[in-house]
Amino acid sequence: MAAADLSQIVKAYDVRGVVPDQWDEGLSELFGAAFVKVTGADAIVVGHDMRPSSPGLSRAFARGAARRGADVTEIGLCSTDQLYFASGSLGLPGAMFTASHNPAQYNGIKLCRAGAAPVGQDTGLAEIRALVEEWSAAGLPATDAPEGTVTQRDVLADYAAHLRALVDLTSMRTLRVVVDAGNGMGGHTVPTVLDGLPVELDRMYFELDGTFPNHEANPLDPKNIVDLQARVRETGADLGIAFDGDADRCFVVDENGDPVSPSAITALVAARELAKSPGSTVIHNCITSWSVPEVVRESGGVPVRTRVGHSFIKEQMAATGAIFGGEHSAHYYFRDFWNADTGMLAALHVLAALGGQEGTLSDLVAKYDRYAASGEINSTVADQAASLAAVKGAYAGRDGVELDELDGLTVTAADWWFNLRASNTEPLLRLNVEARDAATVGTVRDEVLELIGA
Question: Is 395 part of any domain?
């Protein structure tokens, strides 16, 4: 047999592709075996989301791991952060079968070492890919190790208890909360996490359905929160929360149905975490609002800016001992959660903050939402490098302007900044602009888009 070409499905941080066209249960079994060989694990934990292909792919991975001598704990249906909890609390490497918000025909694997430490191209994924490609042609080699066991374990209640122990929820007033699970794993985790709290829960799309019959499970796309916004306004709820497909990201709307920016949530949670651990470091990526480092400093913390992407955030979390990290994409990372991201814990912080006072959410977040922003603008370009170079040339040497290339190109002036980054997977440039007023955002946005020919 010819070796499988995995170049299209093994990404920088995970495995993701169309099933069965690009990968199937046969390859998943090889991934399980390769994961055990590369990590040297004698035991692992495996979980999966609600996609139609997930149970079969997950079982095949477990078979492959067991064939290499590892004992496998299957936790079954779970959110990605629930898998991270299992990896952290059990001290085991883990595999989560999900394609997050991608369409139903996709599936993937998010891998971690014991303690939820990420596995990416530079930390084992390239070696795993090479082994799977080799074994797809030559077959799985024999091993002297006896075959491992495969057992089942339900960790949902333990996961919920752990999260609730990390946030003081004792003084909450009763809140009316609409949650849109998008037919994803939030429908599995939210009822258990919120059980017994002073929350009047209005459930939207809690039925687990990996075909996503109501809308794409990506709350960062405005069209996917329209139903949530309407329900909050119709019912007079205190807030709305939307989760993505694997429920590791959460997005919040206020009592008016207006979106609350992930930067404002990052600042709010940072202030709360710093109140518990004064002087700690907080990580934020280079696209979060100016308000995030400002609030961190005002709260007695140390802000550290990093590149976009969970592997960079987690690296910096570990290197600095940071208590918390946040991204513009609504990923939130916690030291008390093995430096892993959990939207559910961020949601509990929002509930505790709002429920601990009598005001509205819009009033609460106003102090954390200080600037005007464009949101992410994607432009299709023929040559990403040439377009970036043109923009850099236009701003280099301009008085009162600083340039840095930590991640793409960031240009900063006294009253505004923008970041322009190339997509890793598409011929796109992604532009984010922030300024002290909306008019300046428009001016800067239009100038940059003209320079790149958009």
Answer: yes
Question: If you average pLDDT over residues 246-274, what whole number do you get?
Answer: 97
Cα gap 341→326, rounded to integer Å? 9
Dist CA 307 CA 321 (whole Å): 17
**Residue bearing tokens 């005002």:** 298
Burial classification of residue 340, based on how many CB atoms lie within 10 Å of its CB (0-12 exposed, 13-18 middle, 19 or more buried): buried
Q: How far is CA 196 from the centre of its chain?
A: 27
Three-class SS of residue 218?
Answer: coil
Q: Which of 58, 79, 100, 329 is catalytic?
A: 100
Give the pLDDT confidence of 76-131 residue by residue, as tens digits.
999 999 999 999 999 999 999 999 989 999 999 999 999 999 999 999 999 999 99
**Of 256, 278, 300, which closes a domain?**
256
What are the residues whose beta carbons fall under 8 Å from the beta carbon of 379, sequence distance 6 or more? 428, 429, 431, 449, 452, 454
Please give the tally of structural domains in the chain.
Answer: 4
Contact 374, 433 (CB under 8 A): yes
Q: Tell me if 258 sits within 8 A of 363, measured CB to CB.
A: no
Answer whether residue 5 is part of any domain. no
Range of the domain at 270: 262-342+358-366
User: Which pairing describes strands 71-77 and 94-97: parallel, antiparallel, or unpaired?
Assistant: unpaired
Helix, strand, coil percentages, rounded to 5, for the chain = 40, 25, 40
% of residues, the chain, pLDDT over 70? 99
Q: Phi first, then psi: what are they for 432, rounded to 5°?
A: -125, 130
Asked whether residue 425 carries a pLDDT value surpassing 80, the answer given is no
pLDDT tens digits, one per residue of 7-62: 999 998 899 999 999 999 999 999 999 999 999 999 999 999 999 999 999 999 99
In this structure, what DSSP letter does residue 341 have?
B
CA–CA distance, 450 with 435 (Å, rounded to integer)? 18
Among the three residues 225, 256, 287, which one is the final residue of a domain in this structure?
256
CATH number of domain containing 290 = 3.40.120.10
pTM above 0.85, yes or no: yes
Q: Is 100 among the catalytic positions?
A: yes
174 and 140 both lie in a single domain: no
71 and 111 assigned to the same domain? yes
What's the full length of the chain, in residues?
454
Q: How far apart are CA 50 and CA 256, in angstroms?
A: 31
